[in-house]
Write the structure tokens for this entry.
Amino acid sequence: MNNHSPNPSLEGLVENIREWAKELGFSQVGITNIDLNEHEQYLKKWLKQGYHGNMQYMNRAFPNRTKPKDLIPETCRIISVRMDYSTSEANSVEALSNPKKVFISRYALGRDYHKTVRKRLSVLAKLISERVKRGNYRAFVDSAPILERAIAEKAGLGWIAKNSMLINEQAGSWFFLGEIYTDLPLPEDRPKLNKHCGTCTACLEKCPTNAFVKPFVLDARKCISYLTIENKGPIEKSLRPLIGNRIFGCDDCQLVCPWNKFAPPTREDDFKPRHNLDDLNLVEAFLWDEETFLRKTSGSAIRRIGYVLWLRNLAVGLGNAPTCEEIVNALRFRLNFPSELVREHVEWALTQH
Ligand code: SF4
Ligand code: SF4
């Protein structure tokens, strides 16, 4: 990676930023300009095809997403950071192979990353502003219309891979991204972009719902992460049997990726599994009352979907589980649940037994 800048004081500041970021637990920092034109064209086509499903906010926020100045007018650079979240203690891979267990995507087993990463990014932004005694900064963690993977790729944090995730040669794809928009003309990182997927197609073949239209193009409407988290309505019946026991998100296209062999374990206790969420029975979770759901998911990203969608997803998982009295009884117990959405998924699940 080469830095190009005639301004030594800004170069010094970049060195400080890298040191501070490391101390704050970030694994890597990159700095890039705000030209996202190439990615704008890709996003335009993707939205036109309707692959975003019901995520209408993506359409609405389109200009802000691709033109950082539309979001924060003074912005001229973006500082992109990543923080590893993989934890060797998680039992989620075992859970995936046991159809009576709940599978939760690895990123959601611990504390809600939005809080942890945003807090650290705000400290980084504050350190920068104290050092230069001027400047405008805004820190983002999946919290505004931002093309975070495109920014991270431009900043040298990895490449956008065939599975649409950002992959780093040393760290795979188990990491969170965050950004600071700044008006300081910091020297940019100008990495040579190499996409290292080569002839591999493991992720495309592994996807349970065949959600990839082609390499690099994901139809979110078929993706289990979208279906179980973003989608607030009924899950299409033809897709339900393919979801298996994936109750919150899906990691298949990352689990199979050979680059994830290199993923280092997280240094953050916050991202380690909480409340045994990596070792939970479907029936037990389905019988939680709302108060238990709120307690067990306190501080977790899972809470964002709410109790009703949690039960909807669990009903699908129970419909896919092997038939036994315990499962049928649990489903019958929820037949009169007040939400029509839950009732319909419970009725479907019972038809599977
Ligand atoms: S997250 Fe799962 S469903 Fe979505 S694209 Fe990856 S493998 Fe397919
Ligand atoms: S599984 Fe293979 S094709 Fe898919 S993202 Fe990883 S390296 Fe690329």
Remarks:
- The longest helix spans residues 113-132.
